[in-house]
Specification:
Elements: E1 3-5, H1 12-27, E2 29-33, E3 45-47, H2 48-60, H3 82-100, H4 113-117, E4 165-169, E5 175-181, H5 201-206, H6 231-236, H7 243-251, H8 265-284, E6 330-332
Parallel strand pairs: 1-6
Antiparallel strand pairs: 2-3, 4-5
Bound molecules: copper (II) ion.
Copper (II) ion (CU) binds next to loops.
Length: 337
């Protein structure tokens, strides 16, 4: 039976369960150490939740092809693999949450950020930071600040079970152990790494408007990198208004660098990105490009390629094709269109 992924703003039960589960995974030793991942400093136990931070940062700094520039294309971003790679990442986290919550029916909730970015009537003021998502109460994510002052992931130096960031990427993307600290958020900053606004409902709908932009009917296009036309890059945000990238920039702080899964809103954000991709496939078919006739320089991004840096080497090799239809595993309560 497929689990249902629900709207985190309107489903307090899934929100509370998510907060509880993430805190459990933050406190659970994975059995792996920082040394196993080449992270400098004395070997320290890696918590299960922090494995996701490490996988993300390492894959993001792995160029495709090898020797290339990870800012042009890497093992998880700036290419067609972006959506399948994050789909698998979310499925792994969801499975771990189901385990620690002892609830096989738990579905990862999603954050419909465009709802918070859209005025309730034309010309009305928009204040996404006032969304109930960011309340400083234990059943919400806490607001902005360094560290965030409250919420279910508040850092308490005197409580070893409280949420704490232990590993983070430096400005060059390399992972470092950091003294235990809380999450940092800076909403709506201007400038090149910030964004004063969230995407709007119109921005999301326009990503489906193939009359306006015919390439949006195609999943991805050559050269399959950060310069491509097509739907994937529109949703990733290097073309058009910025969708996925813009949300990272609007939240700011720990959501900006390669270690962005340090902020648990990462997974709620990416569940919504995944929901938009699912909506695109419902309209345009479960189509993926490139196929295996593409050159080997795209290894890791072609439809039957195992992904670069798989999450769990003991699991079956994940390929884009294997995650195009996940309707037997999970469904969204509301389709995006
Ligand atoms: Cu990512």
């Amino acid at each position: 039976m497929a689990v249902v992924r629900r709207n985190v703003l309107t489903d307090p039960d899934s929100r509370k369960a998510y907060i509880r589960g993430v805190n459990l995974l933050k406190h659970e030793n994975s059995g792996l150490s920082t040394a196993a991942f080449g992270i400098p400093g004395p070997a320290a136990e890696v918590r299960t939740y922090d494995l996701f931070v490490i996988w993300h940062a390492i894959t993001m700094s792995t160029p495709v092809p090898p020797g290339g520039n990870p800012h042009t294309r890497n093992g998880a971003h700036r290419g067609p693999i972006f959506l399948p790679w994050h789909r698998i990442m979310l499925a792994w986290l969801e499975a771990h949450l189901q385990r620690v919550l002892a609830d096989p029916d738990f579905g990862l909730p999603y954050w419909d950020w465009a709802k918070d970015g859209t005025p309730s009537f034309p010309g009305a003021p928009v204040n996404p930071g006032a969304s109930a998502l960011w309340a400083n109460t234990p059943d919400a994510l806490g607001g902005e600040g360094n560290p965030v002052p409250g919420g279910g992931f508040r850092f308490d130096p005197n409580d070893s079970k409280s949420f704490r960031v232990r590993i983070a990427a430096d400005s060059s993307g390399r992972l470092r152990q950091v003294p235990d600290r809380g999450i940092n958020r800076r909403f709506g900053q201007a400038g090149p790494i910030g964004s004063p606004a969230l995407p709007t409902n119109a921005d999301v709908l326009n990503a489906f408007n193939t009359l306006f932009e015919p390439s949006l009917a195609t999943y991805d296009l050559s050269p399959y990198d950060r310069t491509s036309a097509g739907f994937r890059n529109r949703l990733e945000g290097f073309t058009g208004p910025g969708l996925h990238n813009q949300v990272h920039r609007w939240v700011g702080g720990d959501m900006a660098p390669a270690s962005s899964p340090n902020d648990p809103v990462f997974f709620l954000h990416h569940a919504n990105v995944d929901r938009i991709w699912e909506g695109w496939m419902l309209v345009n078919g479960r189509e993926y490009l490139p196929d295996m006739t593409a050159p080997a320089t795209l290894l890791g991004h072609r439809i039957d390629d195992p992904m670069v840096s798989p999450f769990d080497p003991s699991g079956p090799p994940a390929t884009p094709r294997s995650v195009l239809d996940v309707t037997g595993t999970y469904l969204y309560d509301v389709a995006v269109l």
